[in-house]
Amino acid sequence: MVVEVKNLVKRYKELIALDHFNMEVEEGEILGLLGPNGCGKTTAINCILSLLNYDKGEIRVFGEKMTPNSYDIKREIGLVPQEVSVFENLTVIENTDYFCGLYIDDKNKRKQYVEEAIEFVGLKDYTKFYPKKLSGGLKRRLNIACGIAHKPKLIFLDEPTVAVDVQSRNFILNGIEKLNDEGSTIIYTTHYLEEAERLCKRIIIMDKGRGLVSGTNEELKSMISTSEKIVVGFTEIEDETVQNMKNILHVMDIEKAGEDYIIKFENGFNNLANLMNFIEENQLVYTKLQSQLPTLNDVFLELTGKELRD
Amino acid sequence: MTVYKYFIKIALKNKWTILGYTIIFFSMSLISGSGATEREPKFMETRLNIGIIDNSNSELSTGLKDYLEGKHNMVDTIDDEDYIKEQIFLERADAIIIIPEDFQEKVINKEKSIKIYNDDRKIESMQIQNQINKFLMFANATYEDGKFNLANVNLALREKAKVKLANNNREKNNSINNEWFRNYYNFTSYVIIAMYIAIIGMVMTDFTDENIDSRMKISSKKFLNFNMELYLGQLTIAAIITSIFILGSIVLKGKYIGEVDFIKYVINIIVFSFTILCFTFFINNFTKNKFVISGLATVLSLATSFISGVMVPQEFLGEKTLLLAKFFPTYYFVKVNGTTVNSFSDISFNIFMQLSFAVAFILMGLYFSKAKQKA
Q1: Span(s) in chain A for CATH 3.40.50.300
Q2: How far does the CA of residue A204 sit from the closest CA of chain B (Å)?
Q3: Start and end of every ABC-2 type transporter transmembrane domain (chain B) (predicted)?
Q4: Mean pLDDT to the nearest integer, A87-105
């Protein structure tokens, strides 16, 4: 186990930021910490990294207890913080060299690592640029270069794509996949569902400092009762007919969303075909028909009763 | 030594700040120095514009009036204090003398007999006071049997002494050079405070930025090594800045170093630099706000210079101002520069006070550092 967190409790006076939080990360995986802003993702990371004291619980990294003086463990860890944390008065190459130098003393080795990191994040043409001359996306890439240049085995990426354009976001996500392919274990916090679905082999959904559920993407979606949603719009439909739709096989619930209806189905097959039969039998004219598989947002919604982005 | 290397690198990126202060400093030194080195070949009495109000109309007051009329230009005036002060302020008169009714009695009793309105800051005031004192002293000396012998007084006043200053060039030069070095080193206190806070203080805000600090804390660089390199970087920058000004004095007045207490100035500026470095440490633990630090660099350097005797000599500052100045090391730095040193004990107290401030700043800095860690 690369990271093991047991019953972690962190309080800020009356506020409980982490409430008996548990987490296990295996070597070589990308673990996603998913949750709305303020749910405790960053606090959990800061406790694991000994940047914050915690009130209760146990944290082990690479099998050893993590403390502020665990320098041997720290050597193998990289952090890409949520905020772009670089020196405004140093160029791209100087910034990367500085942060790499906090881990690597050997000058030649460091030079090689710095060049590789800059190439990895696609900033080779910007080495002499100062951060203020870089776009938001390029700054984020520099932030990543500074966190990974020393080739850590365990990388913490704390919402690295916040306020980033689509092109840079894709570049960053591809890079993270590549880092993982090269053997790094990654702990990735985000509140973007699609990122977690794309990257993470395992996800922990957090809310109010607690880990609500954890599992693979598929495991999480199978935990909720809704297995399929069909959005349908009609030219005209009577209330009685809507009530009759509830008798279609596997239908759990029907919600009105504007002019459309969202029909939720529990586990089962041929849901769309059954709905089509009902439409034909009742001679309804539909304007829209769209089948959706459940998303992580549905998982979060069913578990907490609120949207993930609330 | 990555931290050390990049501390120096970032600090030297403030080269325009360093250059700016250095140019201002040396320009001012050159301007003030050009006047200070001129040798006055002779002393000449000047004809001043003076007004006299004689309320005594006695033999003695008439004698004094005649004596002063022969030496100065007379201006009309009236016995009204506001009017007299306006005449002095507008420089229509260099001095207005009021002779009271009981002038003779006061002179005989050796009491203060004359009221003089003048501008104390002007050297001319000394001249007129000297002449009046001389007249009255001679008049008193001739007083016999209830009468003054003004004829003898005038005779004595007409006597001119030929004074030859025997081999005093060396002493005079020493005095002029000492004054130049004293003024030069006094003024370094201003630039040292301003530059240390503006450069070292600002660079430290980058290193202590919360996010950058987090990256350092999770790195495998030991906390002690990291801080050692930071402090070494600060010492190096401080040494560079202070050396510029020590070297500056050598370049500008190197040939006179043997004539002044140069070692005193060097020891004093090193002690002061160390104290201000400690003060910068305190400031950096007190605030991370760049605007506050920038403001402090400007306000503190100027304010302490004004109240401690850098801009205006301590002799001309009020008691309350000097009392306030004693709460900052610049006061003691200026004191040492103005002290003639026969042995170390002459300056030991003021050096000790500067070092005490250094210790106090370190302790206060550590207190705020701990308080922040707890928060």
Answers
A1: 3-222
A2: 24
A3: 16-367
A4: 93
Rounded distance between C-alpha atoms, residue B72 and residue A218, angstroms: 109
Residue B374 contacts A where some CB pair is shorter than 8 Å: no
pTM score: 0.71
Question: Contacts of residue B216 in chain A, CB cutoff 8 Å?
Answer: 102
Give the domains, in start order, of chain B with CATH numbers: 2-38+169-374 (no CATH), 49-158 (3.40.1710.10)
Q: Are the C-beta atoms of residues B369 and B285 closer than 8 Å to each other?
A: yes
Beta strand extents in chain B (DSSP E only): 49-54, 73-74, 95-99, 115-118
Comparing A68 with B38, the larger pLDDT belongs to A68
| φ, ψ for residue B266, nearest 5 deg | -70, -45
- CB contact under 8 Å between B218 and A75, yes or no, is no
Judge: B218–A79 Cβ closer than 8 Å, yes or no: yes
Q: Which fold has domain A228-293?
A: Alpha-Beta Plaits (3.30.70)
What confidence tens digit (pLDDT) does each residue in B269-305 have?
999 999 999 999 999 888 888 889 888 888 988 899 8
**Which of A49, A62, A297 lies closest to A158, judged by CA?**
A49
Alpha helices in B94-158 (DSSP H): 103-108, 123-142, 150-158
| Residues B73/B49, Cβ–Cβ less than 8 Å | yes
Cβ under 8 Å to A: B residues 220-279: 220-223, 226
Strands of chain A (E only): list them: 3-12, 15-25, 30-34, 56-61, 64-65, 77-80, 154-158, 185-190, 202-207, 210-215, 228-234, 251-257, 260-265, 286-292
ipTM: 0.77
Q: Which chain B residues touch A75 with a CB distance below 8 Å? A: 220
DSSP secondary structure code for residue B100 in this structure = -
Question: The domain A3-222 belongs to what CATH superfamily?
Answer: P-loop containing nucleotide triphosphate hydrolases (3.40.50.300)
Taking an 8 Å cut-off on Cβ atoms, the answer to whether A79 and B6 are in contact is: no
Chain A hits for B9, Cβ within 8 Å: 90, 94
Q: Which residue of A has its CA nearest to B225?
A: A102
CB contact under 8 A, A88 and B206: yes
**Buried-exposed string A67-87: b where 16+ CB fall within 10 A, e elsewhere:** eeebeebbbbbbbbbbebbbb
Give start-end residues of each CATH 3.30.70.980 domain in chain A.
228-293
Asked if B9 reaches chain A (Cβ–Cβ under 8 Å), the answer is yes
Cα separation, A273 vs A263, in Å, equals 13
Q: Tell me the pairing of strands A56-61 and A3-12.
A: antiparallel
| Cβ atoms of A41 and A48 closer than 8 Å | no
Helix/strand/coil for A278: helix
Least CB-CB distance to A85: which of B214, B220, B222? B214
- How far B239 CA lies from chain A's nearest CA (Å)? 22
CA angle centred on A75, ends A71 and A80, rounded to 5°: 115
- B221 to chain A: which residues are within 8 Å by CB? 102-103
- As beta bridge partners, residue A21 has A8
> What is the predicted pLDDT for the residue at A310?
45
B13 with A97: Cβ contact below 8 A: no
Q: Which of A72, A81, A86 sits opposite B214 (nearest CB)?
A: A81
pLDDT tens, residue by residue, A124-173: 999 999 999 998 889 989 999 999 999 999 999 988 888 788 888 888 88
CB B181, CB B254: distance < 8 Å: no
